[in-house]
């Protein structure tokens, strides 16, 4: 293998290594944090989803009256 081929192979390895590291760091940032504010926000959103599910699935439910209460 001459120096030109070795140089090109080195560049390819560096590029793929940089992409792997970049993707790993992005994935790390996306994962949920163990932050109390984050958990409180998640709890609030879960409660809102439960309310919406109840509105949608309850038969004989007066939507207009319930939306006015909200």
Strand and helix layout:
Elements: H1 3-30, H2 36-57, H3 63-69
Structural write-up:
The chain is mainly α and 70 residues long. It has two domains: 1-31; 34-70. It is built from three helices and no strands. The chain has helices at residues 3-30, 36-57, 63-69. The protein is rod-shaped. The termini are far apart. The mean pLDDT is 79.
Count of the domains: 2
Count the beta strands: 0
The main pleated sheet reads as: none
Poorly predicted sequence stretches spanning 5 or more consecutive residues: none
Which sequence of SSEs, written as H and E, runs from N to C?
Answer: HHH
Keywords:
about 70 residues; mainly alpha; 2 domains; 3 helices; rod-shaped
């Amino acid at each position: 293998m001459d120096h030109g081929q070795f140089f090109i192979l080195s560049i390819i390895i560096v590029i793929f290594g940089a992409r792997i590291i970049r993707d790993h760091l992005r994935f790390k940032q996306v994962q949920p944090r163990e932050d109390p504010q984050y958990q409180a926000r998640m709890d609030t959103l879960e409660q809102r989803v439960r309310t919406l599910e109840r509105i949608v699935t309850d038969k004989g439910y007066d939507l207009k009256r319930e939306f006015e209460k909200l």
